[in-house]
Structure formats: structure tokens, C-alpha cells
Design a protein that fits this description.
Helices cover 72% and strands 0% of the residues. It has 144 residues and is mainly alpha-helical. It has one domain: Apoptosis Regulator Bcl-x, CATH 1.10.437.10. Helix 4 packs across helix 5. It starts with 9 loop residues before the first helix and ends with a helix. The N terminus is likely disordered. This is BH3-interacting domain death agonist.
């Protein structure tokens, strides 16, 4: 029921990374909140870097019923990699890519809310494929 957020709004913190951390059953809520706050802060910084045409292009891919989930996931991955090149190099690439994927998801869904289910599932699949180990390492680091 909540809007996908990366703007630091407390109501969105937990939801933003809940689906990322879905497979980590032993994770407690405080760890998720800490990671969510960090990712939300980074998302706020990246938000102005993403141009509307990038979002509109992704929207068109998600609206195209002829494209498979794999094709859309590949396109999303390509866009995330391209955007990663325009961000500060002092940040871990995996973290930047993770935040960009979540931020793109938010922007797409805010543009065309009816795409929520398709965008959410595609992004979740992409993040599970690409960042599962990285997310587990983040959780482990915060727990220590």
C-alpha cells in the first residue's frame, strides 16, 4: 500500500529493502532499517542524475507485452550499468547498482502505477540474480 520511496521518508525505509532482503529470514528489523536508511540516502543523491528519458525508455520496455521478463531484465541491467558510470567512483559499484535499480523501480512505478507488479517482479529477480551475495554481506556487516 505504501509508495516505493528512496527519499528518506521513514514509512518507505522498511519497504524499500524488504524485498531485497526477502531471502534472509534471520535478519532482524533493526538491521533492515539501518541498511534501508543508508540506501535511501544514496538514492536521494542519485535521484537527480536519472533523466526522464531513461525512465520513459524503461517504461516503454515494461509496457511492451512482446518482451519476455529476461529481455526486460537484461535491458534494466544495461541501463543500471550505464548510469553507474556517471556516479562517484568512491562508492562500491554493487551498492550503486543496487540503489539505482531500486530508484529506477520507484520512478517507473510513479510514472505508470499499473506497472507495479511487473516492475517489482523484474527488479526483484534482477537483484536476486546480481546482488544476493552482496546483500548478505551488507547484512552481516551491519549485524557485527
Amino acid at each position: 500500500d505504501d509508495e516505493l520511496q528512496t527519499d528518506g521518508n521513514r514509512s518507505g525505509h522498511f519497504q524499500n529493502v524488504l524485498f531485497v532482503l526477502e531471502g534472509l529470514a534471520s535478519t532482524n528489523e533493526d538491521v533492515i532499517r539501518i541498511i534501508a536508511a543508508q540506501l535511501a540516502e544514496i538514492g536521494d543523491q542519485f535521484d537527480k542524475e536519472i533523466q526522464g528519458r531513461v525512465v520513459n525508455d524503461l517504461v516503454q520496455h515494461f509496457l511492451n507485452e512482446n518482451l519476455s521478463r529476461e529481455e526486460i531484465t537484461l535491458h534494466l541491467s544495461r541501463v543500471v550499468r550505464e548510469l553507474t558510470q556517471s556516479i562517484p567512483s568512491d562508492m562500491e559499484q554493487e551498492k550503486a547498482m543496487l540503489v539505482l535499480a531500486m530508484l529506477l523501480t520507484k520512478k517507473i512505478v510513479n510514472t505508470v502505477p499499473s506497472l507495479l507488479h511487473r516492475v517489482f517482479n523484474t527488479t526483484l529477480n534482477y537483484m536476486n540474480q546480481q546482488f544476493h551475495n552482496y546483500i548478505a554481506e551488507m547484512v552481516s556487516a551491519v549485524k557485527q
